[in-house]
UniProtKB/TrEMBL annotation:
<dbReference type="GO" id="GO:0003700">
    <property type="term" value="F:DNA-binding transcription factor activity"/>
</dbReference>
<dbReference type="InterPro" id="IPR039422">
    <property type="entry name" value="MarR/SlyA-like"/>
</dbReference>
<dbReference type="GO" id="GO:0006950">
    <property type="term" value="P:response to stress"/>
</dbReference>
<dbReference type="InterPro" id="IPR036388">
    <property type="entry name" value="WH-like_DNA-bd_sf"/>
</dbReference>
<protein>
    <submittedName>
        <fullName>Regulatory protein MarR</fullName>
    </submittedName>
</protein>
<dbReference type="Pfam" id="PF01047">
    <property type="entry name" value="MarR"/>
</dbReference>
<dbReference type="InterPro" id="IPR000835">
    <property type="entry name" value="HTH_MarR-typ"/>
</dbReference>
<feature type="domain" description="HTH marR-type">
    <location>
        <begin position="1"/>
        <end position="148"/>
    </location>
</feature>
<dbReference type="InterPro" id="IPR036390">
    <property type="entry name" value="WH_DNA-bd_sf"/>
</dbReference>
Length: 155
C-alpha cells in the first residue's frame, strides 16, 4: 500500500505558495516588458540567452533543450520559428549525420543584446532592488542548496 501524501503545512505551504506566486509574477512581468519593448518573446529570449551566454553562440539542439529544461519537440519548434525570422541557423554536425548545431546569427546576437539590456533593468527594478545585499546572499545560498538537492534526485 502506498504511503499517504505528506501534505504541506504551515510555513512549508506559505513558503511554497509565495515562492510560486513570486516566480510566476516576476517571469510574467519580465516577459511582458521585454516583449513590448524589444518584440522578443520570452521563449526567444530564453533560447538566445542560453545559446549566447553558455553555448558560445553554437550548440547541439538536444544540449540547448537540456540547458533550458525543455522537451526536444518544443525546442525544435522554437528553433524552426526563430530560423524563419533569421535569428538562428542550423548547421549539420560533421560527427553525426542526424544531429545539427543551432547557431545564433548576427541578427540573433543583435536581438539578444538589445533585449538583455532591457531585461536586466527590469530584473534590477523588480527583484534586486527589493532585497538587501544580505538577503540576496541568503537567497543565492538557498537557491544553490535546492539546485544541488534536485541534482541528487532521480528525474
Amino acid at each position: 500500500m502506498d504511503a499517504p501524501p505528506r501534505w504541506l503545512v504551515g510555513e512549508e505551504k506559505a513558503a511554497w505558495d509565495n515562492f510560486i506566486r513570486m516566480q510566476e509574477k516576476l517571469i510574467g512581468r519580465l516577459s511582458r516588458h521585454v516583449q513590448s519593448e524589444s518584440g522578443m518573446s520570452a521563449s526567444d529570449y530564453v533560447v538566445l540567452a542560453g545559446l549566447t551566454e553558455r553555448g558560445g553562440g553554437r550548440m547541439r539542439l538536444l544540449d540547448l533543450a537540456k540547458l533550458v529544461e525543455w522537451e526536444k519537440s518544443r525546442m525544435s519548434h522554437q528553433v524552426t520559428r526563430m530560423t524563419k525570422r533569421g535569428l538562428l541557423t542550423r548547421e549539420d554536425c560533421p560527427d553525426d549525420g542526424r544531429g545539427a548545431f543551432i547557431v545564433a546569427t548576427p541578427a540573433g546576437y543583435e536581438a539578444i543584446e538589445e533585449a538583455a539590456g532591457l531585461h536586466v533593468e527590469h530584473v534590477r527594478r523588480l527583484f534586486i532592488d527589493a532585497l538587501t545585499p544580505s538577503q540576496l546572499g541568503e537567497l543565492a545560498r538557498i537557491s544553490e542548496r535546492v539546485l544541488a538537492h534536485m541534482e541528487e534526485q532521480a528525474d
